[in-house]
Amino acid sequence: MALSDSDIVFQSYGRCCNKDAFFVDFYDRFMNSSDAIRDRFKNTEMKQQRHLLRNGIMQLVLHARGMPDTKLRALGDSHSRAGYAIPPQWYELWMDALMATLRQHDDQFDDSLEQAWRRAIQPGVDMIRGAY
Ligand code: HEM
């Protein structure tokens, strides 16, 4: 039986998520995409933030595998205009930084795996962005 998007994405994340360098490189890239984004993390303890993001991406992957959306709703609340007030258009930069970092760290990454990642996690990302 063919592996689903969520299966191959789960395996891809497994090849990346135990390397701190993956999250270091993600935030370097994401913060380099705009000074306004870098500014949002100026008071953030990045070592802690990398751990939180490791779990956050796992929540996106688990959501694609049918897990309830409770954790993503909480992230929607924290990122909304009442919280960190993250402009919806920044999520595209977030996604592009994630894809570039996966390409860098997953030795099995290719264009078809990128499409699988985007199909799998876009609904969860849209849920967080949509809570704005
Ligand atoms: C905090 C995940 C998009 C900025 C967090 C946390 C997680 C997380 C797990 C820590 C828990 C919390 O505070 O609620 C995600 C995921 C995203 C995303 C999965 C994409 C779907 C973004 C974007 C920005 C952003 C686009 C734009 C700058 C922040 C900030 C914090 C944060 C400023 C708080 C940092 C601090 O505590 O100093 N995010 N995030 N996030 N996120 Fe996001």
Main β-sheet, in a few words? none
CATH superfamily: Globins
Count of folded domains: 1
Instruction: Give the helix tally.
Output: 7
Write the H/E string, N to C: HHHHHHH
Assembly context of the chains: single chain
Task: Give the bound compounds.
Answer: protoporphyrin IX containing FE
Q: Structural class of the secondary structure composition?
A: mainly alpha
Radius of gyration: 14 Å
Helix percent band? over 70%
CATH class: Mainly Alpha
Q: What's the total count of β strands?
A: 0
Q: In angstroms, what separates the terminal alpha carbons?
A: 39 Å
The average pLDDT score comes to 97
CATH topology call: Globin-like
Uncertain ranges:
none
CATH architectural type: Orthogonal Bundle
Shape: globular
**Strand percent estimate:** under 5%
Folded structure, characterized:
It is a single chain. By secondary structure, the protein is mainly alpha-helical. 73% of the residues lie in helices and 0% in strands. The protein has seven helices and no strands. Helix 2 (20-32) packs across helix 4 (46-64), helix 2 (20-32) packs antiparallel against helix 6 (90-105) and helix 5 packs across helix 7 (111-130). The mean pLDDT is 97. Protoporphyrin IX containing FE (HEM) is lined by residues 37, 40-41, 43-44, 49, 52-53, 56-57, 60, 75, 78-79, 84, 86, 90-91, 94, 125, 128.
Give a quick set of tags describing it.
globular, 7 helices, binds protoporphyrin IX containing FE, Globin-like, about 130 residues, single chain
Brief synopsis:
By secondary structure, the chain is mainly α. The chain has helices at 5-16, 20-32, 35-40, 46-64, 70-79, 90-105, 111-130.
